[in-house]
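Lecture 7 notes: from sequence to structure.
We start with the chain below.
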Amino acid sequence: MPSLSVIQSVQNSMVKHAYSLKVPKRAKDSEDFLCEGFHLVQEALATPLKCRYIFATKTAYHQPDGQKIFEAAQRAKVRCFEVTSKIIDYLSDTVTPQGILAVVGKVPAQYPLEPFGRVLALHQLQDAGNLGTIFRSAEAFGFQGVFLTDGCCDPFNPKVVRASMGSLFRVPFVQGGKWEEYQGWFKEKGYLTCALALKDSRDLLKVSLPSATVFWIGAEGAGLPESLVQDCQERVMIPMVGKTESLNAAIAASLAMFWARFGGQVS
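Predicted structure tokens for the same chain:
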């Protein structure tokens, strides 16, 4: 590996920019986000996303995954810098950093394209881990997109990015709209709108789901507003046994997506 430019000060302009992406308001307004760890940096380099630059310690670059990242970065003409462990600790959002991170251009918003398939809509979901898991499940179960209303957690929050394991880079999504705006789009495009709700709901396993179906998932605890539930064509629930009253939002979303994708094939 050739010698790299070494950055040792947190006052460096690129380090300052990377650090600003940890500040929620500044991160929301920026065109970039932070991508930390070997796996996520590799995933980012494997997509059309614009990787601005990569920071890693000398030790990280000499790891097998670090060498692969450096070679991929060279092919993509992405600038790589060697930084101190102190800088990695300063920028990292994890307890035990792997010693590598990248500043990457954000995924552009994208509505699903025809032919329309299954999508998920999230209303004011604020838990970062849940949101990242939902993106991962959406990709696993072949969902075409995710709609995030205003009040949802920022999808570029470092915890969301980590929990998505790279799915955030590949599953199209739009964010920041009102639920009424999204509902209007769903109805115009012919989607079956389904609200996941516990009260007065039909068993999900008994509802016929066309390919163009949207599931609405509410915030942890608060659930969906009744006005939104009433505006949906179906009110559905995941059947449960025992004394459990409700499911974690990510688990509920994942089960609904699994059934929508594979339910017709389950004996």
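Points to note: The radius of gyration is 21 Å. The chain has two domains: 6-105, 119-265.
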